[in-house]
Amino acid sequence: MIDVPLAVLDLAPVAAGTTVGDALRATTELARRTEALGYQRFWVAEHHNMPAIASSSPAVLLAHLAAHTTTIRIGSGGVMLPNHAPLVVAEQFGTLEALHPGRVDLGIGRAPGTDQGTALALRRTVEGLSAEAFPEELASLIGYFTGEERIVATPGRGDMPAIWLLGSSGFSARLAGMLGLPFSFAHHFSARNTEPAMELYRRHFQPSRWLERPYAMVAVSAICADTDERAEWLAGPASLAFLKLRQGRPEPLVSPEEAAAYPYTTEERQFVADRRVGQGLGSPETVERQLTDLVARTGADELMLTTMVYDLEDRARSFELIAEKAAR
């Protein structure tokens, strides 16, 4: 049994032959279904210049998702702070918190979530593009919510969502601990760094006005189906999409049939195999064993599952099967 709370990280994947509108409607439907299954939170992630991902505007999408659900927490996994002025983020998420009090998470990342050219187009200046400015900008963002900044953020001041730090290395883990904030680690694309980051976070944790003790969530790729073979089949499109992204050729998710027919080289197959290490992939029993082991190794207080498959029904079925293996 998976004995920690479960959450969802969704990227609004765009399948080949469909539209961005189709992808966003599928994400909305998935939020409703996972809420009914008892998932604790539903996050969307900021990415840019990626044809397979439609969640480029988290605040806009989250407003829509919050209006179409009632209890599940909604949030960003995350907003990439180097892309935005802190005041803008404070006003956007202050608006969400004012409209849906107690349901909003603001997950903050320090990477741009895209290439440098696109990051420059977003920010319109090279100032702030470096991660070195992140601690200062984070402090400014929090200050707009708490009223410690000179400028009044309206909405924002007095309407503070739950702030999380996100990371795939030790920097954010250490900073989250020092600030006494909850921390979410991107195990789904940085599996080798997960356990060291968890140790760093807990070692540096200082109690704060927001958190008395460490609270760490691990984001993990999970594709569950009735059999191991079916799950492997469904995982093909995401593996191929990630390979092409790393090759500088991003494109929408192809069908499992097209992914299976792709002529992988030996090196490409090894890349895909390496990426799957430490993730959840297989039948309900297989995934239960994998995720239980992950919790035991990392001490995670919560797991956030991200499931990139071609069809909404297969995506929803994966979350349903995993929910059946979770503690109630």
TrEMBL record:
Residues 8-301 form the Luciferase-like domain. GO terms for cellular component: cytosol. GO terms for molecular function: oxidoreductase activity, acting on paired donors, with incorporation or reduction of molecular oxygen. Gene3D superfamilies: Luciferase-like domain. SUPFAM superfamilies: Bacterial luciferase-like. InterPro entries: Bact_Lucif_Oxidored, CmoO-like, Luciferase-like_dom, Luciferase-like_sf. It holds the Pfam family Bac_luciferase. To bacterial alkanal monooxygenase alpha and beta chains. NCBIfam families: oxido_grp_1. This is Luciferase family oxidoreductase group 1. It comes from Longispora fulva.
